[in-house]
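Action item from last week, closing it out:
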Amino acid sequence: MPNSTTTLDATDGLAFVKEVDQLGRSLAKVRDGVGKVIFGQQEVVDQTLVTVLAGGHALLIGVPGLAKTRLVETLGIILGLDDKRIQCTPDLMPAHILGSEVLEEDAEGKRSFRFIRGPVFTQLLMADEINRASPRTQSALLQAMQEHTVSIAGQTHRLPEPFHVLATQNPLEQEGTYPLPEAQLDRFLLQVSVGYPDEQAERAMLLATTGSQEVEIERVLSGEQLLRAQKLLRRIPVGESVVDAILAIVRNGRPDSTDIEEVRRNVAWGPGPRASQALMLAIRARAVLDGRLAPSIDDVLALAHPVLRHRMALNFAARAEGVTLDSVIDRLCAPHR
């Protein structure tokens, strides 16, 4: 696997460049296809694509009506993935997601258990309003998201490949919700903030979605092609200066190992090594998405917020003073701008 200290020979290098270039062209078509349906959310679309290309899961946070569900449905079609949706509610049980065993009797009277697979057995799972599910149900997704397996009645079942969870969370109407625990949040590669579109984008959306014609979405990739793309991304070299920037930003976010007074004063706990891994994968995906062969420090700065904001917590005093995590992450990124 090439990195900042290894190189490819001429033949392998040329083939590698061609592969990355072809992937970049395919991703440009994916972007165009999503853009026909999702208006004014280019950064959200790009960060979601980065998540899928890097092989991870994304948590989409925004108010209702911002096309979060539509985005997931569109990606399923364009990327050629089997997709399913679950609506999380307080009475949703783990078996409703994972599946369960049922006792059956055949014509001869013999009884046996048969496992009926739940909606988690798909390639693209949308968990809508995930914070409305109970902690017990939320934890049912932990093993699936991390290990891509499900254990039922002592039997382990492999999930399809690729497997991605795109969960949505409504920041409003907090009554009847259960905040996701840190262990669950850390499973998400990126936390994507979905904001309102600007006036021009909203005008285009208004005209496009209230007419008589429906936009036809065409498949660009397949599940097998996406898996190959994910493996290709891991071969993209990352320069030493970029690696140093990742380590500096993540490690300085830990209050017990930083010289930054703002972090030591305001942060209760900082990002773990999984944050560094997430940044390393995400910046490679962002580079290819932009048609580049190697990531830069600009990619690190662009993805620091969605990678870190759900992997850090402010202490009580900082929250009382109105300090935000985004301001702390800005401080971590400042020396590299």
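Closing note: DSSP finds 14 helices and eleven strands in the chain.
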